[in-house]
Task: inverse folding
Protein backbone atom coordinates (compact mmCIF):
# COMPACT_ATOMS: atom_id res chain seq x y z
CA UNK A 1 0.00 0.00 0.00
CA UNK A 2 1.47 3.35 -1.03
CA UNK A 3 1.28 6.10 1.55
CA UNK A 4 1.42 9.81 0.86
CA UNK A 5 4.46 11.20 2.66
CA UNK A 6 3.96 13.34 5.72
CA UNK A 7 6.04 16.38 4.84
CA UNK A 8 8.12 18.58 7.11
CA UNK A 9 5.71 21.46 6.50
CA UNK A 10 2.87 19.49 8.09
CA UNK A 11 5.06 18.50 11.04
CA UNK A 12 6.04 22.15 11.55
CA UNK A 13 2.42 23.29 11.35
CA UNK A 14 1.42 20.61 13.85
CA UNK A 15 4.08 21.82 16.27
CA UNK A 16 2.94 25.45 15.79
CA UNK A 17 -0.68 24.49 16.42
CA UNK A 18 0.30 22.70 19.64
CA UNK A 19 2.34 25.73 20.71
CA UNK A 20 -0.56 28.11 20.07
CA UNK A 21 -2.96 25.88 22.00
CA UNK A 22 -0.47 25.65 24.88
CA UNK A 23 -0.12 29.45 25.02
CA UNK A 24 -3.93 29.74 25.07
CA UNK A 25 -4.09 27.39 28.04
CA UNK A 26 -5.75 24.54 26.13
CA UNK A 27 -4.50 21.23 27.48
CA UNK A 28 -3.43 18.67 24.89
CA UNK A 29 -2.95 15.13 26.20
CA UNK A 30 -1.81 13.64 22.92
CA UNK A 31 -1.53 14.84 19.33
CA UNK A 32 -0.60 12.86 16.27
CA UNK A 33 -0.89 12.74 12.52
CA UNK A 34 -2.89 9.84 11.09
CA UNK A 35 -2.86 8.90 7.42
CA UNK A 36 -6.29 8.15 5.96
CA UNK A 37 -5.68 6.16 2.77
CA UNK A 38 -9.25 6.49 1.49
CA UNK A 39 -8.63 10.20 0.89
CA UNK A 40 -4.83 9.98 0.70
CA UNK A 41 -4.39 12.62 3.36
CA UNK A 42 -2.74 13.08 6.75
CA UNK A 43 -5.01 14.48 9.46
CA UNK A 44 -4.02 15.99 12.79
CA UNK A 45 -5.75 14.41 15.79
CA UNK A 46 -5.69 16.30 19.08
CA UNK A 47 -6.92 14.79 22.34
CA UNK A 48 -8.00 17.48 24.77
CA UNK A 49 -10.10 17.42 27.96
CA UNK A 50 -11.95 20.37 26.44
CA UNK A 51 -14.02 17.85 24.43
CA UNK A 52 -15.28 16.25 27.65
CA UNK A 53 -15.73 19.55 29.50
CA UNK A 54 -17.54 21.54 26.80
CA UNK A 55 -18.65 18.96 24.26
CA UNK A 56 -17.26 18.55 20.74
CA UNK A 57 -18.97 21.55 19.12
CA UNK A 58 -17.88 24.11 21.71
CA UNK A 59 -14.40 22.56 21.89
CA UNK A 60 -14.02 22.98 18.11
CA UNK A 61 -15.31 26.56 18.32
CA UNK A 62 -12.77 27.45 21.00
CA UNK A 63 -9.81 25.70 19.35
CA UNK A 64 -10.53 27.09 15.89
CA UNK A 65 -11.06 30.60 17.32
CA UNK A 66 -7.67 30.42 19.07
CA UNK A 67 -5.98 29.22 15.87
CA UNK A 68 -7.70 31.90 13.78
CA UNK A 69 -6.69 34.63 16.26
CA UNK A 70 -3.09 33.37 15.96
CA UNK A 71 -3.24 33.68 12.16
CA UNK A 72 -3.09 29.94 11.57
CA UNK A 73 -6.24 29.63 9.44
CA UNK A 74 -4.28 29.60 6.19
CA UNK A 75 -1.69 27.11 7.50
CA UNK A 76 -3.84 23.98 7.55
CA UNK A 77 -7.43 23.42 6.37
CA UNK A 78 -9.66 23.01 9.42
CA UNK A 79 -11.08 19.80 7.91
CA UNK A 80 -7.71 18.17 8.64
CA UNK A 81 -7.96 18.80 12.40
CA UNK A 82 -9.88 16.36 14.57
CA UNK A 83 -10.50 16.85 18.27
CA UNK A 84 -11.00 13.82 20.48
CA UNK A 85 -11.56 13.09 24.13
CA UNK A 86 -8.49 11.77 25.97
CA UNK A 87 -10.83 8.91 26.99
CA UNK A 88 -11.23 7.75 23.37
CA UNK A 89 -10.41 4.00 23.34
CA UNK A 90 -8.24 4.22 20.21
CA UNK A 91 -6.21 7.05 21.73
CA UNK A 92 -5.93 5.15 25.02
CA UNK A 93 -4.50 2.13 23.17
CA UNK A 94 -2.08 4.44 21.35
CA UNK A 95 -0.99 5.95 24.65
CA UNK A 96 -0.34 2.46 26.02
CA UNK A 97 2.02 1.83 23.09
CA UNK A 98 3.88 5.11 23.55
CA UNK A 99 7.63 4.86 23.25
CA UNK A 100 9.91 5.98 26.06
CA UNK A 101 11.57 9.37 25.86
CA UNK A 102 8.91 11.05 23.72
CA UNK A 103 10.44 10.00 20.42
CA UNK A 104 8.53 10.15 17.15
CA UNK A 105 7.06 6.77 16.34
CA UNK A 106 5.18 5.46 13.32
CA UNK A 107 2.87 2.50 13.83
CA UNK A 108 -0.24 0.81 12.50
CA UNK A 109 -3.23 0.68 14.79
CA UNK A 110 -4.67 -2.70 15.61
CA UNK A 111 -8.10 -1.06 15.87
CA UNK A 112 -7.79 0.77 12.56
CA UNK A 113 -5.48 -1.34 10.38
CA UNK A 114 -5.61 1.06 7.41
CA UNK A 115 -4.43 4.03 9.51
CA UNK A 116 -0.80 4.87 10.25
CA UNK A 117 -0.06 6.98 13.31
CA UNK A 118 2.80 9.40 13.76
CA UNK A 119 2.97 10.53 17.35
CA UNK A 120 4.01 14.15 17.84
CA UNK A 121 3.65 14.85 21.54
CA UNK A 122 2.39 13.55 24.84
CA UNK A 123 1.72 15.38 28.08
CA UNK A 124 2.09 13.16 31.11
Result:
Amino acid sequence: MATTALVDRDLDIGRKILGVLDLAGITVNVAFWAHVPQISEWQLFIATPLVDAKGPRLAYEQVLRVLKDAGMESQLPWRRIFLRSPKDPVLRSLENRRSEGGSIEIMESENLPSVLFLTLRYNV
